[in-house]
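Module 6 notes. Inverse folding takes a fixed backbone as the condition and produces residue identities as the prediction. Think of it as a translation problem where the source language is geometry and the target language is the twenty amino acids. Below is one complete input and output pair. Work through it position by position during the lab.
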């Protein structure tokens, strides 16, 4: 379903850059020159070429300094299942103190971890001894409204969090690979509701992953509540801000803004987990160009959530969650592949072997690229 862009985002969307066809082709030529020897890595080349096109750097320095942005918030509908799932505050503490697998892998791939509280339903007192972990609070309140009864947030709240997400992206280094992740209690339910509202599909509701602690009864209850929410908010689902404020989550608004902000800064992004995927789907519904900046981290994301234009998924481990773990595993794989390519190209490539005929490269509008 296509919508008109929200006016609040007009200025930001006008700043979205075109991808660099020159960097993409130069990166492709580098890989093509080595593909006979390293064909086993061919599946990763599309992702690396996209990173080159977004960052404008054929040498892919963006892979040397990856970032992970994890936006955490609770959804009001989680009050229906008070004993289900790990408290979001516990997830934040594990990420900050380094006991989470995601924070441990972040260290191994050299990724900085930025954690944002967009609405955790608890008092947060963040502490971390690691210099590569930073925390910011964007909290408006402790959790959204219960979407089966009320709006998740006001339209003003949704717009404020979108702009906060754009500003948050400005704190990240330019032209770096950014892993987008996030969620919280009942985020899978909220993400599924947001995606159903975008698709206009109100009959076959898909919750892509069974939320932690949900038995079959709770899962069926969640599907019924999603349908109730879509009916409850039917009149407000005619535009992007209406959809986001009616059935979205605080994490979706911040992540959507951050995706725009990172795209403006020419940072390729890995979409990890259902909250990030739903945020990306919301953006693509009115700005298809944004999909060109995005790579799915994990193939466990259902096909309807992966919009046209996204590169193939890098990983297939089925570990999508809210902490960015799949994205960091995928980034590690890409770093390894790139390291091999760089080593072989330095040792074996002939001088001048990767020159590109720029006159043969076309821009998005079909015009030739001048040297």
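Target side of the pair, the amino acids:
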């Amino acid at each position: 379903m296509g919508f008109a862009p929200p006016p609040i985002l007009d200025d930001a969307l006008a700043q979205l850059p075109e991808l660099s066809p020159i960097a993409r082709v130069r990166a492709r030529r580098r890989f093509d020159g080595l593909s006979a020897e390293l064909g086993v890595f061919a599946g990763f080349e599309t992702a690396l070429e996209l990173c080159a096109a977004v960052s404008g750097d054929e040498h892919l320095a963006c892979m040397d300094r990856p970032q992970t942005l994890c936006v955490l918030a609770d959804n009001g509908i989680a009050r229906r299942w008070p004993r289900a799932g790990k408290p979001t505050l516990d997830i934040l503490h594990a990420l900050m103190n380094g006991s989470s697998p995601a924070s441990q892998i972040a260290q191994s791939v050299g990724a900085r971890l930025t954690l944002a509280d967009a609405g955790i339903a608890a008092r947060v007192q963040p502490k971390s001894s690691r210099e590569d972990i930073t925390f910011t609070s964007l909290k408006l309140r402790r959790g959204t409204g219960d979407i089966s009864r009320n709006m998740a947030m006001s339209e003003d709240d949704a717009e404020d969090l979108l702009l906060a997400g754009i500003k948050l992206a400005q704190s990240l280094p330019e032209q770096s690979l950014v892993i987008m992740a996030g969620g919280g209690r009942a985020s899978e339910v909220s993400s599924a509701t947001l995606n159903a509202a975008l698709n206009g599909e109100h009959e076959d509701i898909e919750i892509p992953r069974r939320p932690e602690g949900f038995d079959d009864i709770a899962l069926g209850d969640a599907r019924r509540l999603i349908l109730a929410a879509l009916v409850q908010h039917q009149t407000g689902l005619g535009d992007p801000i209406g959809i986001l404020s009616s059935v979205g989550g605080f994490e979706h608004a911040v992540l959507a803004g951050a995706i725009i902000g990172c795209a403006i800064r020419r940072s390729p992004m890995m979409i990890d987990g259902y909250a990030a995927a739903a945020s990306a789907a919301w953006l693509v519904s009115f700005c298809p160009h944004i999909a060109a900046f995005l790579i799915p981290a994990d193939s466990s994301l259902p096909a309807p959530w992966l919009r046209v234009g996204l590169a193939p998924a890098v990983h297939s481990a089925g570990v999508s969650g809210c902490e960015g773990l799949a994205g960091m595993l995928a980034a590690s794989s890409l770093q390894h592949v790139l390291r091999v390519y760089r080593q072989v190209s330095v040792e074996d490539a002939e001088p001048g072997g990767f020159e590109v005929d720029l006159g043969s490269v076309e821009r998005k509008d079909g015009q030739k690229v001048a040297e």
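Reference fact for the lab report: The first helix runs from residue 10 to 14.
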